[in-house]
Amino acid sequence: MAMDEVERRLREAYDKDFHFEDGHVLGSMCSKPEDIAVKYQALFAEANLGNRGLYPGTAELEEELIADISGLMHLKGGWGQVVGGGTEANITAMWIARNLSGKKKILAPESAHFSMKKAADLLGMELLEVRLDDDYRMDVDDLRRRIDKDTAVIMAVAGSTELGAVDPIKEVGEIADDVFFHVDAAFGGMVLPFLEELEMWSEEWDFRVESVDSISTDMHKMGMATVPSGILLLRNREYVNLISVESPYLTSKRNIGLAGTRPSGAVAGAYAVIKTLGREGYRKIVRSCMENTRYLVEKMGEIGLEPVIKPVMNVAAFRTDRAEEIRREMDRLGWKISTLRNPKAIRIIAMPYVTKEVINDFTEALSDALKSL
Ligand code: 0PR
Fold first, then answer.
1. pTM above threshold 0.90
2. Would the CB of 186 count as within 6 Å of ligand 1?
3. How far is it, in rounded angstroms, from Cα 277 to Cα 106?
4. Cα 16 to averaged position of ligand 1 atoms, centre (Å)
């Protein structure tokens, strides 16, 4: 195909997609990446940390990025790697737990992301769901009842996909003393440290809880970086041996983790964004997202929709038996929201591009739609 024809085709496809800046996407957990992340992801497009020896520069960036995120989550020493996202991080953590213990049972809250089902299936493990309490947090009494000699791992969520709820990590940690304990902070990892600095959150949820063995967080969710830039952190670097194989013909003799070739442009992108935003930059973003979440709750209240829980972070779900019907109608009007099945609710994530103006436009359109439904 001629160059201009290819470009026309690419443009056409691009225009079919929904873009965050258009202010109609209210159901995505992904960042609109900062410009600097996009620029440097492109510069490092050919880098592949799967063959580390060819990319010593990129490897240094990854080490610094991991050190910074470790610091944010109070991990000293330890080990970390940039992975393809929350799914890969959860699978890898379960892989370590299985190989470490030789056991099969995973205890996870009912609110765990569906990637846990993939992890259990792939690894031949058994996923047991722990009940939630009235605040949609893992019920520690139920957890205590379910743990037994065959439990390989307990996982908890810091920022659930549906509600942004945070499990009681410290209490779970007391129960998980002798068992591998993984915290999925795919969304919350880049929110909670800043909520804490803003004095809007006070529970310990990270490596300060001694029995936490691993934490995952995604830089492409609240990290303002490009897709895909997940991060997995491990307290004990020796555990790496459980997930590595010989790679005799490469520049490094061991290949660690699930991926061979790793999308390493995202490492440069994430590095660029954390170094330019710094803690202050993220604090500002989180503060503004929380203000907008409160504003959203207020505006939804005016049209008779109440939140399932008081939002802990910038994820808000509103109860309604007509959730699916509303989603379909709003979709027809060009608004992209998502729904929960239990309880029935519509869900909105107040990412930075969901501004007060967007909220005004959306609630106005929703109010009109509700009258005609
Ligand atoms: N853990 C949690 C708590 C998550 O919320 C998610 C994804 C994952 C793990 C898996 O992460 P990856 O998708 O990076 O593998 N949460 C969102 C979801 O499944 C992801 C998402 C993002 C969905 C953008 C839609 C969208 O437009 O709902």
1. yes
2. yes
3. 37
4. 22
